[in-house]
Design a protein that fits this description.
single chain; mainly alpha; globular
C-alpha cells in the first residue's frame, strides 16, 4: 500500500488534480464569460491538461470493480449545451485523421462542445474519485484516467486544440 501512496500523492498527480479542478470549475462557471474570454481560457486549459495528463505516473489496476461514474447524463448534456452555445459558429470543425485508420477519405464534422464535454467527463470522474480519500479508489481512478488518456481524452485534447486555435484567431 505504501507504493500506491507514493504514486497517488506524488507531485504529478497532485498537480494534475489542481489543474483538473480548475478546468471543471471553469467549465461549470463559464456562463458569464464572453465567447472571446471562453475561447481564450479554453486555449490555455487544453494544452495544460494534456501536458499534466502525459506526466501522470503509471499505476496497475488492482480492483476488478469499475470506477464509479460521477458525471450524470444530465450534467453531461447540460455542459454540452452550454459549451455549444458559447462556441456558437465556431463549434464545428473538420477532422481528417482517424487514429485507428490514419487519414480519412472524407473529412468528418466534429464539435468542440462534444470533445470538451468528453474530456470534462473523464477528468471530473477522476477528481470526484480522488476526493474520496480512499486510496484504493484513488489508485483505480488514476489507472482509468491514464487508460482513458491514452485511448481517448488525450487525443481529444490534441484534436480540439487545433479547432480552438482556429476559432480564437479567426474570430478576433
Amino acid at each position: 500500500m505504501d507504493e500506491i501512496n507514493s504514486v497517488i500523492y506524488s507531485a504529478p498527480v497532485v498537480e494534475f488534480v489542481a489543474v483538473a479542478k480548475e478546468f471543471c470549475l471553469f467549465l461549470t462557471q463559464s456562463e458569464e464569460l464572453s465567447q472571446k474570454e471562453f475561447i481564450d481560457k479554453l486555449q490555455k486549459f487544453i494544452p495544460l491538461l494534456y501536458l499534466k495528463g502525459s506526466m501522470l505516473p503509471y499505476v496497475d489496476s488492482y480492483n476488478d470493480d469499475e470506477c464509479e461514474d460521477f458525471v450524470t447524463e444530465e450534467e453531461y448534456n447540460a455542459l454540452y449545451a452550454q459549451v455549444k452555445a458559447k462556441m456558437g459558429e465556431y463549434d464545428d470543425y473538420l477532422e481528417i485523421f482517424d487514429p485507428t485508420d490514419g487519414y480519412m477519405d472524407e473529412p468528418s464534422v466534429r464539435t468542440i462542445s462534444e470533445k470538451v464535454s468528453d474530456i470534462y467527463q473523464d477528468i471530473k470522474n477522476f477528481v470526484q474519485a480522488y476526493r474520496s480519500g480512499v486510496e484504493s479508489v484513488m489508485s483505480e481512478a488514476l489507472w482509468v484516467l491514464n487508460n482513458n488518456f491514452e485511448l481517448y481524452w488525450g487525443r481529444a485534447c490534441v484534436d480540439v486544440l487545433r479547432a480552438v486555435h482556429t476559432a480564437k484567431y479567426s474570430s478576433y
